[in-house]
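Hey team,

Filing this mostly as a record. A colleague (T.K.) asked me to run one chain through the structure pipeline before their review meeting, and I want the input and output archived in the tracker in case anyone asks later how it was produced. No errors, nothing strange. Just documentation.

Input sequence:
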Amino acid sequence: MNLRRLVTPIGELTLTASETALTGVYFPGSRFGPPAGTKAPSAILDKACDQLTEYFAGKRTTFDVS
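Output structure:
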C-alpha cells in the first residue's frame, strides 16, 4: 500500500493507493486512520494529489484518477 500526505486548506489529507487504484482519502481527525503504508513512487497518487491541488485552487470541479 502506497501513501502520500497532502497539505490542503482543510488540513493534511492522507491518500492511499494500491498498484492499480486510489484506495482511500483520510481527512484530519478521521476516526479511522490510514492503513500502514510506505511512501513510494505512485502515478495514481501523483494524479490524485495534482487534482486535489487544482480543486483547492478553484481550477477543478471533477476528478478522474483512473
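Quick notes for T.K.: Helices lie at 43-56. Residues 21 and 66 are 7 Å apart (CA to CA).
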